[in-house]
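ugh ok so i messed up the first submission bc i forgot one of the chains. this is the corrected input, ALL of the components this time, i swear. 228 residues overall. if the numbers dont match what u have on ur side tell me asap before i send this to the collaborators (the ones from the other lab, u know who)
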Amino acid sequence: QVQLVQSGAEVKKPGASVKVSCKASGYTFTSYDINWVRQATGQGLEWMGWMNPNSGNTGYAQKFQGRVTMTRNTSISTAYMELSSLRSEDTAVYYCARKFEYSSSVWFDPWGQGTLVTVSS
Amino acid sequence: DIQMTQSPSSLSASVGDRVTITCRASQSISSYLNWYQQKPGKAPKLLIYAASSLQSGVPSRFSGSGSGTDFTLTISSLQPEDFATYYCQQSYSTPDTFGQGTRLEIK
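and heres the new structure output, hopefully the right one now
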């Protein structure tokens, strides 16, 4: 079945960087964009950006420009999201999601299980 | 950015009730509106895409409607497993934006 499996929880100090992985299976990895969404504890969903695994092209939310980098390794069907200069406000669960497009409609399905990133001194 | 506003923010209901959640976009998004269900500690799950299309495997008690700026998610007869938080998402333009969520609780 189509699924995305993310790497495990991370604890980082302020100012450090974190790199979260998202391994795809059950479909052709290079055929669909991967998007990243985060969710602080008890809060809503915040879109961070997208990556085209075929071309490597990316697009980031303005809020994260300069701090986020999305990459991929097509040989192992894995996408990565790296966030730098971490601060306490970056403590959140980070999700990857496949962007599905069909007949002028666009949606996210499936989602990874989420990766908790905790930023604490 | 397109702002998405859901109402209500929280809702108490009983098993068997009919429930409606609304989502309003700050500008027209045609039918580029999706609904997700999220349970505590879990990833969001797609329920409805393109405003009214039911995702495969999702029970038929869930339905969506609307276009332009106003959308609704309806659960025709609440089941115990439906108590969760629901989010709308617009995919009309980048950045994709989500509503703030509607928490559906047991009365």
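quick check: Chain A touches chain B at residues 35, 44-47, 50, 59, 61-62, 95, 103, 105-114 (CB under 8 Å). that seems consistent at least. Chain A is about 0% helix and 55% strand.
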